[in-house]
Amino acid sequence: MSKPYQAPGYSSTQTISVLTGASVMLTMSMGMRQSFGLFVAPVTQDLGISVADFTLAIAIQNFTWGLTQPLIGAFADRFGCRVMTIGGSFLYAAGLGVTMIAEGPIALWIGLGFMIGLALACTGLSLALAASARAVSVVKRSVALGTISAAGSIGTFIAAPLAQGLIDSNSWVIAMVGFIALCAVMIPAAFYTGCGDDVSVEVNSPSTNGGSQMSVKEVLIEAWGHKGYVTMSIAYFVCGLQLIFIAAHLPAYLEICGQSSTLGAQALAVIGGFNAIGCYILGWLGGKYPKHYLLGGVYILRSAFIVVYFLLPATPTTTLVFAAVMGLLWLGVAPLVTGLVGQIFGLKNMATLTGIAFFCHQAGSFIGAWGAGLLFDAFGNYNLAWQIGVIIGVTAGMAQLFMNDKPTDRMAGAITA
Predict the structure, then answer these.
(1) SS3 state of residue 71
(2) CA 81 – CA 396 distance, rounded (Å)
(3) Nearest CA to 272 among 365, 186, 155?
């Protein structure tokens, strides 16, 4: 008989292996991804390129991640995620290697941009949360997803100080070597994330999965027909724009304000630490309250605190307080979005559907990374960038509050059957 936290068909060992592997994989993968903003100043100075050249690499990374996520998710839904997570871990290390030998923007766009973007589609939130959602019971799902997302936050607490310390004591190239060591840790974790690959979701009840296997075309038609899902995905675009703007540009903004480079690393680390708390809290709240209300509240609160921070002088105190608040409101949206997808569509096509929503998130990240870099190069400051982020953040939050979160007709029929 299954324990309360296990999904039907999973042994206790499988459930623990999936959750542990997903947690460690996210810790490494997301920790490095959230710390690339620390490389803006040293890389642009060393290679003689513009800020926009570097942030275009980050933009390509995020767009590649989003563009390939639905395809990676569809493959994982049908054939298992282990081959994707392990392959992505090796590709991550290879992308870092190409970045290390870059002599201009093109190699940077290939390594840091395309290769790591594709690697993140294999090792990032979508596959980790999809694998975890299948491994736990519906009663514990929201809390479990919040806990796994928290692991991705802890990674910044590790990777950011590691990178800044190696940049200060050696060079940005040596810092990339340190990140390759983190990839070595990620590989066995990626293996264990796939421990549930041999457990068919067919063992779960129809009310959880909603009937027989659907084609990719049928999945897309059903997703487009659910206006609540479309609203959530568009709002997720704004989420990506806001987060990557802060992660990629906050260190550079602080240097413009005369603060030390160390403060940027400290801010990212504080975001990571408080994000772990925020993910768990939002995951817990998602099991008790409507998830779309929580999402809307997060987007509006983020926007409000961005206004307050950028209107105040940038000091160590205001920066670290801002980082703590942003951390509480950071990746906690991921378990809420994943939980909503499961609630509306069931589990069978979760990686595909969260991948499609995540594409919208990463399209926002592309605009947030590169667009803010272009605005900085054009005006010499980030004023217009953060103002745009605030306006669309409030708009997205309001739309999210009123989304339709009811299950599809297919799911509703399965539940009443």
Answers:
(1) helix
(2) 32
(3) 155
The encoded tokens of residue 322 equal: 């801002």
Residue written as token pair 């960038």: 385
Token representation of residue 155: 């990674």
Type of residue numbered 267:
A
Q: Which CATH superfamily is domain 12-196+206-416 in?
A: MFS general substrate transporter like domains (1.20.1250.20)
The two structure tokens encoding residue 399: 């739309």
Alpha-carbon distance of 330 to 239, in angstroms, equals 9
Helix (H, G, I), strand (E, B) or coil at 136: strand
The predicted-structure confidence for 342-396, as pLDDT tens digits, reads as follows 889 887 787 788 888 888 888 888 888 888 888 988 888 889 999 999 999 999 9
Q: Domain segments of the chain: what residues? A: 12-196+206-416
Which among 330, 326, 172 has a CA at the least distance from the CA of 261?
172
Cβ contacts of residue 372 below 8 Å, gap of 6+? Answer: 55, 245, 248, 249, 382, 385
47-56, 94-103, 206-215: range with highest mean pLDDT: 94-103
Listed residue (106, 49, 117, 145) closest to 343, CA to CA: 145
- Give the residue among 208, 237, 216 at the shortest CA–CA distance from 344: 208
